[in-house]
Amino acid sequence: MRFTKMHGLGNDYVYVDCFTEKLDDPRQLAIAISDRHFGVGSDGLILVMPSTEAADVRMCIFNADGSEAQMCGNGIRCVAKYAYDYGHTAANPMRVETAAGIKTIELKLGPDGKVVAATVDMGKPILEPEKIPVLIRQARAVDVTIKTANRAFQMTCVSMGNPHAVFFVDDVASVPLAQLGPEIENHPVFPARVNAHFVQVHSPTEVTIRTWERGSGITLACGTGASAVCVAGVQTHRTLRKILAHLPGGDLKLEWCVSDEHVMMTGPATEVFTGDWPDKAK
Questions:
Q1: I need a labelling partner for 41 at 20 to 30 A (CA). Which of 56, 143, 218, 278 fits?
Q2: Would you kindly state where each structural domain of the chain is located, as residue ranges?
Q3: Catalytic annotation, residues
Q4: Does residue 60 register a pLDDT over 60?
Q5: Can you tell me the mean pLDDT for 37-41?
């Protein structure tokens, strides 16, 4: 099986071209191929597929633990790059089908004609607690309290097609993410688990984010999470609608537009290498 390793700001996935490849068990493949010691090493597996709807291409994403995710902001930029660079579509803007709906992506091309970056229309955030989902009684999950084993936090919850909990802190570097991440991800208030983001606000237009992703653990970047942070910052009056987000893997530009309430996310897409995964290891 041929694969391609790609990343958006270090949020790395193994991509398989399902226009030509057929997989029997993508969940088990995701677990095996994502292993950073015995596999290729990645935050998960993304399949590039023909669209079943009126889109140019379809993406299907599996986390490193084999669970399926609805969307990935960094991953979808790389899907668009793969589809364009490998000739599956010349559409720009491109429409990509996901489990969270069809997303429109504006591609930025480099001197060689290949995609180097993209702006993704992430759509409208979902703010109703029952749709995120988060089990609280308030009309909005804004600055609500969650208790972990050793402390209590204020969180704001947003879905960008997948669930996110945003925690604003004074010093993001001091957060014990490896300890708190799995505890928050699996907290009973989140029936579908959750992605956890700790955020330090530097100014109304600049933040730093550290992320624990549902099913993958600590990652260098999370595009849907950064989009959720943009929305949460506005909801809690900490930031403006247009921000620069610093993540361990690099920077993303976010804007929660006034006109249509859509979140726009801009960042790079990078191909690392291609290889062959032995059929017996699927």
A1: 56
A2: 2-120+268-281, 129-261
A3: 72, 222
A4: yes
A5: 97
pLDDT at residue 280, as a whole number: 66
Instruction: Summarize the confidence of residues 189-202 as an average pLDDT.
Output: 98
Smallest CA-to-CA distance from 98 within 144, 42, 56 is with: 56
Report the alpha-carbon angle 17-21-25, nearest 5.
100
Q: What is the DSSP letter of 124?
A: P
In the predicted structure, residue 282 carries a pLDDT above the cut 60: no
Residue 33 to residue 41: CA distance in whole angstroms: 6
pLDDT tens figures, 120-178: 999 999 999 999 999 999 999 999 999 988 889 999 999 999 999 999 999 999 999 99
**What's the fold here for domain 2-120+268-281?**
Diaminopimelate Epimerase; Chain A, domain 1 (3.10.310)
Mind giving me the DSSP string for 19-77? TT---S-HHHHHHHHH-TTTSS--SEEEEEE--SSSSSEEEEEEETTS-EES--HHHHH
In the chain the beta strands, taken as DSSP E runs, fall at 2-8, 11-17, 44-49, 57-63, 68-69, 94-98, 101-109, 115-121, 144-147, 152-159, 163-168, 195-203, 206-213, 217-219, 242-247, 250-256, 263-268, 270-276
Provide the token pair at 199: 């955020």
Q: Is the pLDDT of residue 281 over 70?
A: no
Fold of 129-261: Diaminopimelate Epimerase; Chain A, domain 1 (3.10.310)
